Amino acid sequence: MTFGDVKTAEGLKHLNLFLEDKSYLSGFVPCQFDVEIFEAIPKVNANLVNVLRWHNHIKSFSAEEKKNFPPDTNPIRAGRVVIDDSDDDDEDVDLFASDDEEEDATAAKIREDRVKAYSEKKQKKPALIAKSSIVLDVKPWDDETDMKEMEKNVRTIVMDGLVFGASKLVPVGYGINKLQVMCVVEDEKCSVDALIEEIEKFEDFVQSVDIAAFNKI
């Protein structure tokens, strides 16, 4: 198949036909060739359903993800889409060699290596660590409770995935203050219920513990 300048209606029409049974312009994963053509197309007509599907898909990737697409190194390509205003007819050639042409061993190996490299890169991306930001209300028995000693005891708790933050005393009435302390926990490592149980073990100081705020990070 041949098509010309993708900035023209004729070029986009032929590109639409090319994408009728393909997800990408080269191989089975997006590459820099897809980015090149994506950036060359000024606007997609809604009637060009295949181009629109492909264009919206490439658009869904962030700029950083597009930058990390593998290069287009397919050696069996017969030519490139014309994306400038040159009148040189030699540039308006097949995007790919005919489907009937047999790929040689080198071409097949390059394609296999490219897919493998892209898959490995995706797998190496660090997994997101689910965390929660929590504000706890630690309530004393009465106004004679040593609040500094209470906080000191609370901060002695060590749990995997737990980090204590700022704290303050909040008046609750009759001269009694509660300790409000912030902390961040990794959801898979630290149970909030277990943390509350640990704090309530300081029975000489702590009457009860409530969750004042809970937000996923």
Automatic annotation (TrEMBL):
SUPFAM superfamilies tied to this protein: eEF-1beta-like (SSF54984), GST C-terminal domain-like (SSF47616)
InterPro entries: eEF-1beta-like_sf (IPR036219), EF-1_beta_acid_region_euk (IPR018940), EF1B_bsu/dsu (IPR049720), EF1B_bsu/dsu_GNE (IPR014038), Glutathione-S-Trfase_C_sf (IPR036282), Transl_elong_EF1B/ribsomal_bS6 (IPR014717), Transl_elong_EF1B_B/D_CS (IPR001326)
Any single Pfam family the record assigns to this protein: EF1_GNE
Chain spans, region Disordered: 65-89
The keyword Chaperone belongs to this UniProt entry's keyword annotation: no
Domain Translation elongation factor EF1B beta/delta subunit guanine nucleotide exchange residue range list: 131-217
Key words, A-Z: Elongation factor, Protein biosynthesis
Domain Elongation factor 1 beta central acidic region eukaryote residues, every copy: 95-122
Domain of life: Eukaryota
Protein family according to the UniProt entry: Belongs to the EF-1-beta/EF-1-delta family.
Protein name: Elongation factor 1-beta'-like
Organism for this UniProt entry: Nicrophorus vespilloides
Annotated gene: LOC108567075
